[in-house]
Amino acid sequence: MPLPFLTADRAFDATDDVALPFDDHDQWRRPYRPGPWRVGAAALALLLASFVLFAAVIIAAAGAMGGAAATFTLAALVILAALRMLRVGAWVSRHGVRRVGFFSTVTVAWAQVAHARTAQQPVRWLGLPRTVQGQALMLVRRSGEQITLLTDHNADFLSRVEAFDRAADTVEAWNAEYGVVTPEPATAGTAAAGAR
I want to staple 71 with a disulfide (CB 3.0 to 4.6 A). Which of 14, 56, 168, 179 is the partner? Predict the structure, then answer.
């Protein structure tokens, strides 16, 4: 039985798979919804943390405070890992683009971005060492360094090709709006016409 839950900022149908609308471009936001694999893994981790917390309460009631403290610490680590898992992905704002990984975060200002493009290449399947042929949204810095922002086989876009295309288009639109447009070099014909 479907239950239509509405939120204050929800102005569209619950079956739509589009990014949430925002007005303030100064705040960091994810330009797409987290995928079911990411949300499912975080939900399972939180379920595991609830059992660990329940075990910690039982251990504390039994009087073994050292074991209870260790179990509470383990539950806190699992909860923090689940919350970090939900933060992983690409985030954009007026200031730049941010790739949040599980252990590290890379922020690039739009002024440092040469261009963002989608490329066919081997990508990691769900972040595991196994690679498959897929699409990746590549961010190319002015220094020439390339950063992979999104892939169509990560936890947000596995089996969701249309959602990946929309997210890549959204990031490219942010780059077009806030990035620095590099002027193309003038050709000899253009320079001669300008001299006249």
Answer: 56
CA distances 84 to 19, 100, 104, 126, Å, are 20, 9, 11, 16
What radius of gyration, in Å, describes the C-alpha atoms of the chain?
Answer: 22
Query: 80 and 18 in contact (C-beta within 8 Å)?
Result: no
Q: Say whether pTM exceeds 0.70.
A: yes
Nearest of 46, 44, 54, 106 to residue 77 by alpha carbon: 46
What are the distances in angstroms from CA 153 to CA 41, 99, 118, 196? Answer: 15, 16, 14, 55
Dist. CA 10–CA 66, nearest whole Å: 47
Q: What is the pLDDT of residue 144?
A: 85
- Short-list 161, 152, 147, 117, CA closest to 131: 152
Residue with tokens 């941010």: 98
With residues binned 3-state (H G I as helix, E B as strand, rest as coil), the percentages for the chain, rounded to 5, are 40, 25, 35
Q: What is the pLDDT of residues 116-163, one digit of tens each?
A: 889 999 999 888 888 899 999 999 898 888 988 899 999 999 888 899
Token pair of 130 as six digits:
């196994």
Q: What CA–CA distance (Å, rounded) separates 126 from 139?
A: 20
Reduced to 3 states (helix: H, G, I; strand: E, B; else coil), residue 63 is coil
